[in-house]
Structure formats: C-alpha cells, structure tokens
C-alpha cells in the first residue's frame, strides 16, 4: 500500500515522502479500514513539524482524521466489513489504517466522503467550545481566523443558539462569505483596529474569545473582552505565544484557558458523547451547518495538495482521496 511518511520532523515539503509498504494486519481488537478521504488540518502540519501536543514516533505517517470502509473486522465482528466509518488516528495519510474497533463511528447514511472526512475535528471542536464557553443567547463571541473551516462552523452553530459572532479576517473578500453565514461583525485586522471596532459595536467588549492564532492578534483579542470575560485558546496559527497583559487580567478579572478536543472528549460521559455526535451529524446531514471543499487530490499527489493548502485566500478544505 501507499503511505505518506516522515522520518524526521520539519517542514512538510521537506520531510514528507511517499513509500510503498505491506498492508497492515489488525490485532484482535482492531478493525482495518481502507481509507477513502482525509482532510488537511493545521494540527497535521504542526504534528509533522514536531510542534503539536502529540510527539510523533518516527517514522510516522501524517494526518489525524479520515473516513473509510471496514476492510477487515475485529475478532468479535463488532463492525461488519463494508461499513463506512469516520475515525481519528495518528497517521491517516495511508491507504489502510488499523484502529481499535471502539474508536470508529459508523458514518450516517447520506453523508458524502468529502463531508464525512471533516465531520470530526472541527465540528466537534466548535460544538465543544460553544458548550464549554457558557455563552448565552444575545452574548458575543469573538473568533480569530474567522474564515477558517472551524470559524465558519462556529458562526453557523452559534447563530442557532442566538449568540452574536464577531470574526477577524485578513482579506476584505472574506467578509461577504462570513456575513452570509450569519456573522454579526467581521473585522479585517490588516486595515482596522480590533479593539476599537469591537468597543464601538458592542459598547463594552465581547463575552468570550475563541483564539486560534495567538501572538499579537491573540493579545488584541484578549483586550477586546469585557470585564469578567474569558479567552479560550485552542490553536497557534501564528506560531507565537500570546504576550499576556497582566494588568488586563487583574483589573478586568479576565480568564484564559486552553481547549483541546481530545481532553474535552475524554471527560464526557457516554450520554454526552452520543449527544455531541448526534448533534454534529444532524447539523451536517440537514445542511444547517455546511463545510466547504476547495479541492481534492489523490494521496500520491500530496505535494500538490500541500501547495494548495498553503495558498492564501483559500475558502475550503484540501482533501486527500484514494
């Protein structure tokens, strides 16, 4: 089978390579999945660079999220061969993956591979952060990198709860797309002063910030919080830590906390987990929440896919398909 691997961490275009290896054999508690589609997430790039919360065991394949067909079931045949499943694993940029049977989720009927392969990480992160935030109807959330796949999902999910959404972008042409999805305020931080616009439009600031960027933008987003507000940090697209203003934290009684999907899901009860998946899948199937696809590439064309991923102004996900 074909797989995309790296033998040392570094820039994807420098360390990734395509290899031909034997198809893996599942252990008794595992199923083997013939992978049909995977999407490229920022976490995948961070993992390849050795900058993610999980340290790669080299050599390693890239990718965490995918959809595929059960090719061989586990010992108890808990999931029949031929079942289409959504799953996460370390290293999905390969043609076959073995995963513990209890960690795969049957894909809802009617969900295309292109949507199913991105139905886990971003939608559940958006859902989980909104649930954890404590935001109520009529309150404001500020989402940095609002034109990202995650940002678009938050806008759509928040609007269903009556939560007002402000977003940051870096290009004016991204504004109309986000307003069409339901954003109440879209700020081009290349041209506008974030805190100034936020205060003018809200009066006293936003209740919560969802920050995916860090760095200087993260600091400006923190300063856009109202007294008693909270920043939830879940990404570091700038690759720079947030320079925290201690005075702001003290005198405005602000809170800063991290959010990682893996940790959040580990704390859910079986009932809460089932509710989360049911809600997300229902949104995607009914198209109350939509995901965008920019382009698809065969697995062996991963280099071209990475070039497309890095392209500025991209409006949808880049997928690797088999």
Automatic annotation (TrEMBL):
This is Zinc-dependent alcohol dehydrogenase family protein. Keywords: NADP, Oxidoreductase. Coiled coil: none annotated. The lineage of its organism: Bacteria, Pseudomonadati, Bacteroidota, Cytophagia, Cytophagales. It comes from the Bacteria. Residues 10-320 form the Enoyl reductase (ER) domain. SMART domains: PKS_ER.
């Amino acid at each position: 089978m074909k797989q995309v691997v790296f033998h040392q961490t570094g820039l994807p275009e420098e360390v990734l390579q395509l290899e031909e290896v034997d198809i893996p054999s599942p252990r008794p508690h595992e199923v083997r999945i013939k992978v049909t589609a995977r999407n490229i997430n920022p976490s995948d790039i961070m993992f390849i660079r050795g900058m993610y919360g999980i340290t790669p065991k080299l050599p390693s394949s890239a990718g965490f999220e995918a959809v595929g067909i059960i090719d061989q079931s586990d010992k108890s045949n808990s999931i029949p061969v031929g079942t289409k499943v959504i799953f996460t694993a370390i290293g999905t940029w390969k043609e076959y993956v073995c995963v513990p049977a209890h960690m795969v989720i049957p894909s809802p009927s009617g969900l295309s591979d292109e949507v199913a392969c991105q139905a886990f990480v971003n939608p559940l992160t958006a859902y989980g952060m909104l649930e954890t935030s404590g935001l109520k109807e009529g309150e404001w959330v500020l989402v940095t990198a609002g034109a990202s796949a995650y940002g678009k999902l938050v806008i759509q999910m928040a609007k269903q709860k009556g939560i007002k959404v402000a977003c940051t972008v870096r290009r004016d042409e991204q504004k109309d797309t986000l307003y069409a999805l339901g954003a109440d305020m879209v700020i081009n931080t290349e041209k506008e002063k974030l805190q100034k616009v936020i205060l003018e439009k809200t009066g006293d600031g936003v209740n919560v910030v969802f920050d995916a960027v860090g760095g200087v933008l993260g600091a400006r987003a923190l300063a856009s919080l109202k007294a008693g507000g909270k920043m939830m940090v879940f990404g570091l697209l700038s690759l720079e830590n947030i320079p925290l203003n201690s005075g702001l934290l003290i005198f405005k009684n602000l809170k800063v906390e991290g959010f990682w999907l893996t940790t959040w899901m580990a704390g859910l009860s079986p009932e809460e987990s089932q509710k989360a998946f049911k809600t997300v899948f229902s949104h995607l199937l009914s198209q109350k929440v939509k995901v965008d696809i920019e382009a698809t590439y065969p697995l062996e064309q991963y280099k071209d896919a990475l070039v497309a991923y890095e392209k500025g102004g991209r409006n949808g996900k880049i997928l690797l398909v088999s």
